[in-house]
Each structure stands twice: as C-alpha cells, then as structure tokens.
Design a protein that fits this description.
By secondary structure, the chain is mainly β. The chain has a single domain, classed as 7 Propeller (Methylamine Dehydrogenase, Chain H). Helix content is about 0%, strand content about 45%. The strands form eight sheets. A five-stranded antiparallel sheet has the order 1-11-10-9-8, with no helix packed on it. A hairpin with a 2-residue loop joins strand 12 and strand 13. About 5% of the residues have low confidence.
Length: about 425
Amino acid sequence: MVFGSSACLGTEPTDPSNGVSAVSGDAWTSLRGSLGHGHADGTLPDSWTDAEYAWRIPLGRRDVGSVVIANQQCFFLAHDATKNSISLRCVSMNDGSSIWQRSFPLGAYAMHARNSYAASTPTISGDKIYIAYADDQHTYVRCLDLEGGDVWVRDFGPWQSDHGFSTSPAIIDGLCVLYDSQQADELPPGKQPSHERMIAVDAQTGDDRWMTPLTATRTCYGISSGYESPEGSTQVVNAGTGDGIFSLDARTGKVAWSIPVFDKRIVSSPIVVGDIVLAACGSGGGGNAIVAVKMPGRSSDDPQVLYRIERGAAYVPTCAIDGDHALMISDNGIATRFRISDGKIAASGRIGGNYGSSPIVVGDKVLAISLDGVATIMNATSLAKRGEVRLGGPVGASPAFANGRLILRVDDELRCLWTGAEM
C-alpha cells in the first residue's frame, strides 16, 4: 500500500524502545505539552513588565504556530513571504540565539484571516522532530533529527480548505499520525469535494503503515491522542464533523468505534483523560459545544456520551487539564472549570476579550491570552483573577512552558520569561 511519495533521507535511527531519549529534563514536546493536557509544574508571576523578559527576538512576521521545547532549545515554524518558504527554526532557550534553521519551498492556498502559513506546531519524540505543512498541491510531513538533519519526508498530495492548514502530526505507538481532513462541503464555485482520512506512517522510517478513509465534510484540525484500552490495544482518538468522536486501532487503522455527536467544525484537539475523551465543535456564529464520551472498555461495548456543555463552550481554544478538572476559555472570554467525570461546573466567570490560543495551567495558576494580546492570570481552582499583562501585540499561538521559562509568540516576536528556578 502506497498512498504518498516517500524519501528516506537519513540513517536508521536508534530504537526508542531501549529507553534512551535525546530529550532530557523538562520539556514541552507538542502543542499542548508532553501529555497533551496543557499542564506544567512550576510557577507563574501574577504580572510582569517588558523589562523582565530574559530575551525577545524578532521573527519578521506574525504566525500562529506554537513552540515546542526540548534540551534547552525552542523549535517552531516560521513563514518567509519574500522567499515563499516555511522554516523550522531552533533557538537557544537561554538567550534566544539561533542554533539552526531549515527552509522548505511553500506554495499558496486560501486561508482564514486569523490563520497563517506557519500555523502548525512541531512534535518531538525521542531524538526526532516532526512537522507538517501544506499548499494547494502538497501536504508534507517531515522528520528531522534535533540538529536539523533530514531523516524522511512524505508528500500526501493537494490540500484544500477555505480555512487553510493548521493541524500537527502526533506520535502514537511508533506511528507518525496525521489527520488529513479537507473540505468537502460549503465549497466556493469551481472547487470539487476533497477527502478526509487518517494517515499513519512508521515514525522512524516514514514507511506506510495504514490509511483509513473517514467521512469528509468540513476541514477539522484536531491533533490525535493515544489511548491504551483495557484489552491492551493502542488506539488513535480524534474528532471530526462527519464521524463525531472516533477511535482507530493503531496497529491496523480499523475504526474501533465512533459516535456522531457534532454538527459543526472541530478546530480544537480532543483530550484523553483516563477513559474519557473531551472534544468540542463550533463556528464563528456560535452553537459551540464540548462533549465528554466514555470510551468502551471492551471491543464489544459501545461508547457513551456522559454530558454536553454548551454554555460558555470553546470552539477554537483547547481545554487545559488540572487534576480531575478541565479549564476552558471560550472564544468570547468566559472561563469555566468543570469536573471531567460528570461535567459539574466548579467555577465560571467572564474575563473579557476574544480568544484563539489555548490556556495552560502552570502550578496553581491558569494563563489565558486573548487575540489582542492581553494575558490574564487566574487561580486554577477558583478562577479568581490574579493579574493582567498587556503584551503589546496580537497573539494567536498558544504559550509553552518548560524549565521555569514561559515562551510566548507575540505578533512578530518570540519572548521568554524566566519565572523561577528550573524544575
């Protein structure tokens, strides 16, 4: 089975099963942190000033892709409009100095006004970094080593969506997984419906493992999560308009279960907490909802909807997890803390502003940053406001935190705030 062009560009990597990883110390290895929960140990100040940044570096333009962190280095994608290219950049966590940069040609495509060409977030696993990007004619997934050397690249063909590209690869059970969800309805004149599928390749070699067709409707952007079922099988969990919340067997790609619970687009990522998955849908015109589904314990069982929250539900931002509670920031600035097991609201209140980036929990505080760059710091339990910082520029990227350092992408800058001793 071959479903995309392949080139293996490096030597065979070290087997990750030997327990040796090139990633050491505290890390933030994907869009929502290393566990996908948007949670980190550490401390956050209630406020800070421009003079307190450890460093800030110009990036040349505003992009909405977030930063990942490993080995005291920050990795992120950036777009260069003058060269029609997208770059994977690596900078020092200590002073922001450039360590290396790799650039790749990039064509054009239609996209939402709030999107950007470098909207995807890299994913780090072991001693490799994985990126995804697309244009009208190509959908690329690349694997590089942490020094910027090529390992493999795949091209899965044209990309079509009126919102553009912004999903990210996930590493699950030795697979590099990409949710290739493209537009099939509400198309502009002259456009033909496209496909929806989950693609899995070997994370070490880029070789085909499986491709599962799904129900194409509207482009959805969630990053897949892994789940170990009670029966011992690893599953790939995601959510889309056409199939609702669904799970695929990681070994074969076969659909294990699906439950149709959505009628709108999914932009945020599903979160797996124990045997519960949280996922949300919405639109710019409202109708947002977050749904909790209890995943089946056995292959003969069916998934069950536990609850549905519509009031104050987020569409674009993904929830953060704080123990047995989830913290949600709606697109129009309502903060909500609810119990994951039953959806009981523990605290809620309006903080104001409009939001696209996702909140994170650091220690006992929540950080939420609005589209116009107002950072609000709240108590994680009560949601009482602790402080506010006006960052001085728009923010679409979610923050990252590791080694006592908060990394922010503000307008056309990358900034680092040292918040205390390294963890």
